[in-house]
């Protein structure tokens, strides 16, 4: 019979139950990419799914969507923007640090294959999810055009990764014209619809962007899927925090989504619910900032 655990044994066992940060890189002033060791999660991850993490034992549970993963090497990758307390804490972590929890994969994977000609629109940090989805669609034999948008060139992410995919076309848009074409992502989406060169579309990004993408394709009868990011707590359908209205019916973003028919989503309700804790988020981040010396 083995003796009692030593302090070193307890420490090693605790580390084994946690999730090691393998790498972190800064993509822009407020956008970061993190790679985490999570073999069990990576083994089952699919494009469009998400996971929930806690930075520490006292932290809040926050959902993030996979941007990449390796089942063979046992890691997952996600991209996030510093907007509040938890994302601020994440920016302080580096290789060798640990997350307390990573639960997933959660949600329904994005449908790929048999879609024909697809336009995948990624706006802002939503480009991370668009990359995973576009890659899966290409692998499944779909013909994919990606429209990548951001406010300016500094906020464009994953351009090289998209260029490495076997896409039909990559269209880059910036609101200020500092990279690619000047304008909104809905402009080239409308052109594709009018030219009848796409059979379906998917939009991933800010709710307002997805709303107008769906409005653009609706006029041309192009089926459109959107990946929603409602407020979420447990991620298993029990709390109801992530409820959204789709076609007049209540759905849960965590178990029914995150993908939904963009022509049936009540975007006004979604955006209203997303704004509920904005002030609290900023206050919590400001309070945390008082006592930290930021590395980034």
Characteristics of this structure?
296 residues; alpha/beta; Elongation Factor Tu (Ef-tu), domain 3; Rossmann fold; 7-stranded mixed sheet; 5-stranded antiparallel sheet; 9 helices; globular
Q: How does this model look, in words?
A:
The structure is a single chain. It is built from 9 helices and 17 strands. It is of the alpha/beta class. The protein folds into 2 domains: 13-106, Elongation Factor Tu (Ef-tu), domain 3; 117-274, Nucleotide-binding domain of ferredoxin-NADP reductase (FNR) module (Rossmann fold, 3-Layer(aba) Sandwich), CATH 3.40.50. The strands form 4 sheets. The chain has a 7-stranded mixed sheet with strand order 12-11-10-9-13-14-17, sandwiched between helices. Strands 5-6-2-1-7 form a 5-stranded antiparallel sheet. The protein has a 3-stranded antiparallel sheet with strand order 4-3-8, with no helix packed on it. α7 (207-218) links the parallel β13 and β14 (224-227). Mean pLDDT is 90; it is low at 8-13.
Layout of SSEs?
Layout lengths: L6 H10 L2 E8 L4 E7 L1 H4 L7 E5 L7 E4 L2 E3 L4 E7 L3 H7 L6 E2 L1 E6 L10 E7 L3 H13 L3 E8 L8 H5 L5 E6 L6 E2 L3 H9 L5 E5 L2 H12 L5 E4 L15 E4 L2 E4 L6 E3 L5 H8 L3 H13 L6
Parallel strand pairs: 9-10, 9-13, 10-11, 11-12, 13-14
Antiparallel strand pairs: 1-2, 1-7, 2-6, 3-4, 3-8, 5-6, 14-17, 15-16
Helix pairs in contact: 6-7
């Amino acid at each position: 019979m083995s003796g009692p655990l030593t302090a070193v044994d307890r420490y090693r066992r605790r580390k084994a139950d946690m999730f090691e940060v393998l790498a972190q890189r800064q993509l822009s002033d407020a956008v970061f990419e993190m790679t985490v060791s999570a073999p069990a999660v990576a083994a089952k991850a699919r494009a469009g799914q998400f996971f929930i993490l806690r930075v520490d034992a006292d932290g809040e549970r926050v959902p993030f969507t996979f941007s990449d993963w390796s089942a063979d090497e046992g890691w997952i990758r996600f991209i996030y923007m510093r907007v509040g307390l938890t994302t601020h804490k994440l920016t302080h972590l580096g290789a060798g640090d640990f997350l307390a929890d990573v639960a997933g994969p959660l949600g329904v994977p994005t449908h790929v294959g048999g879609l024909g000609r697809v336009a995948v629109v990624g706006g802002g940090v939503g480009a991370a999810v668009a990359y995973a989805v576009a890659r899966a669609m290409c692998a499944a034999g779909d013909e994919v055009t990606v429209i990548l948008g951001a406010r300016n060139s500094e906020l464009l992410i994953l351009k090289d990764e998209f260029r490495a995919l076997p896409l039909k076309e990559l269209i880059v848009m910036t609101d200020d014209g500092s990279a690619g074409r000047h304008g909104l992502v809905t402009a080239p989406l409308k052109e594709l619809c009018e030219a009848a060169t796409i059979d379906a579309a998917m939009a991933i990004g800010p709710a307002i962007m997805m709303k107008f993408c769906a409005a653009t394709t609706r006029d041309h009868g192009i089926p459109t899927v959107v990946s929603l990011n409602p407020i979420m707590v447990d991620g298993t359908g029990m709390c109801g925090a992530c409820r959204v209205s789709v076609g007049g019916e209540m759905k849960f973003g965590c178990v029914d989504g995150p993908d939904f028919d963009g022509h049936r989503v009540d975007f006004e309700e979604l955006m209203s619910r997303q704004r509920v804790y904005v002030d609290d988020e900023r206050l919590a981040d400001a309070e945390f900032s008082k006592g930290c010396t930021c590395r980034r």
